[in-house]
Write a structure and sequence with these properties.
single chain, alpha/beta, GMP Synthetase, Chain A, domain 3, Rossmann fold, Helicase, Ruva Protein, domain 3, six-stranded parallel beta sheet, three-stranded mixed beta sheet, 9 strands, about 55% helix, lipid binding, DnaA_C, Chromosomal replication initiator protein DnaA, DnaA_dom
């Protein structure tokens, strides 16, 4: 029977997704041996107390989830990692059962993976981390000053990592408290689902979240102008605060820029501490890359390659991590077992796989490529953008091209004019100014669409 349990255990470990736990944790789990089942608990032996600490510290909830799925037919749902000298304590009842308490709600596997051990703390996010520490401290005065904590900044700069790490740390330190995680769109979908079933279901949904000791609510801008959902959130917010709970909010803008909310909601959002997370610079991006590869020890990468990646992506950590995964995929499928990831390797793979990517940094992006990318994005022909036609949709695309060439490639107005059928520099200046005025109203539909295009550069 124990051999069968070992087979099930090995199968469960192989099913844990590659990026949910560290390479070090994988190595520990692969070497671990099933000892026995006693009183409904499966005991698994690891080599040392240090290894036991690593598994129980950051990854036990993820591991237990996959073990539970594999062992459900055996009616085993509790798992405990032990060291060799603890075996004799099992039958005597001197070994305390370490059951995994479910105190994290609506946490995906990805969210549960984040912790402060794999977070690079630098100037761009240090204030936010300090604010988190104050909010979650047991010192009432420090905590109340930061409650609610409103973190804001551009997309892709690591807000999710910080707040998820905070939630996981708080959950590990307070196993009897409840932590809820919601993203704005997810909250709205579940609110709509509850509404379709009737008032009692909405009330049940509200009571469930309002029972949180810590609520993490990301991208709150996604429920603005959705009055019923925003009203429900307002009531949940008040209940949590009234019951002494803590709240962390994130957005891509400040509370005062959330124009789709009633004033009383904005007042609540701004009633604690507001903290901006900035974009990392190139050197900070290199630190993040180094940290990422620290958990992916099987890859070798040159400093030049790291600088190349950082140059192209330092303003968007999320996109940078996505490209690191892409690069590692290419490396995994290369026939050279002793491959070292170089700048040339990255460029060659990008071209071969026809993957448009910011990894071709601004300095290497050609003006013609900018026009082609914008034309493709707007489903237009390049020749039309360069033509003299005054059709509104073409003029709008041409204005965006002028803005990007001026602000992203630093071309002069005269140089841009030559690219666009010899237009006068005053005409180009007018186009750039038009786009700047649109972007000044951050919440307008036009500004949002233009920003989606600009973000590609």
């Amino acid at each position: 029977m124990s051999n069968n349990y070992q087979t099930l255990y090995d199968s469960a470990i192989k099913k844990i997704p590659y990026d949910l736990i560290s390479d070090q944790a994988y190595e520990i789990l692969e070497k671990a041996k099933v000892h026995k089942v006693y009183d409904g608990v499966l005991y698994i032996i690891v080599a040392s107390a240090f290894e036991k600490t690593i598994i129980n510290g950051n990854f036990i909830n993820i591991i237990s989830k996959y073990l539970s799925e594999e062992f459900k037919k055996e009616n085993i749902v509790n798992f405990q990692f032990i060291v060799e000298n603890e075996k004799v304590l099992i039958n005597s009842n001197f070994l305390v059962k370490e059951t995994v308490i479910k105190n994290r709600f609506n946490f995906s596997d990805e969210i549960m993976r984040y912790n402060f051990n794999n977070l690079v703390i630098s100037d761009f996010n240090r204030k936010a981390v300090k604010a988190i520490e104050s909010l979650l401290s047991t010192n009432y005065e420090n905590s109340s000053m930061c409650n609610p904590l409103f973190l804001f900044g551009k997309v892709g700069i690591g807000k999710t990592h910080i707040v998820a790490a905070a939630g996981n740390q708080f959950a590990n330190s307070n196993p009897n408290l409840k932590i809820y995680y919601y993203e704005g769109q997810d909250f709205f979908r579940k609110f709509c689902s509850a509404s379709a079933k009737g008032t009692s279901h909405v009330e049940e949904f509200k009571k469930e979240i309002a029972s949180a000791n810590l609520l993490i609510f990301e991208d709150i801008q996604n429920i603005q102008s959705r009055d019923s959902a925003a009203e429900l959130f307002f009531n949940i917010f008040n209940d949590i605060k009234l019951n002494g709970g803590k709240i962390i909010l994130t957005s891509d803008r400040t509370p005062n820029e959330l124009n789709g909310f009633h004033d009383r909601i904005i007042s609540r959002l701004a009633s604690g501490l507001q903290c901006k997370i900035s974009q990392p610079d190139k050197n900070e991006a290199i630190k993040i890359i180094n940290n990422w590869f620290e958990f992916k020890k099987k890859y070798q990468i040159t400093d030049e390659a790291k600088e190349y990646i950082a140059e192209g992506f330092h303003t968007d950590i999320r996109q940078m991590i996505g490209n690191l995964k892409q690069i590692c995929f290419w490396a995994d499928n290369d026939l050279n077992e002793n491959l070292v990831i170089t700048k040339d390797f990255i460029i060659e793979c990008s071209v071969e796989n026809d993957i448009p990517s910011n990894i071709i940094v601004k300095q290497q992006l050609k003006p013609e490529q900018v026009i082609e990318i914008i034309a493709k994005e707007l489903n237009l022909k390049v020749d039309l953008i360069k033509s003299t036609t005054r059709k509104n949709s073409i003029v709008w695309a041409r204005d965006i091209v002028c803005y990007v060439l001026k602000n992203k490639l630093n071309l002069t107005l005269t140089e841009i004019g030559k690219l666009l059928s010899g237009r006068e520099h005053t005409t180009i200046s007018h186009s750039v100014n038009k786009v700047e005025k649109i972007l000044a109203d951050k919440n307008s539909q036009e500004a949002l669409q233009i920003n989606l295009i600009i973000d590609k550069f």
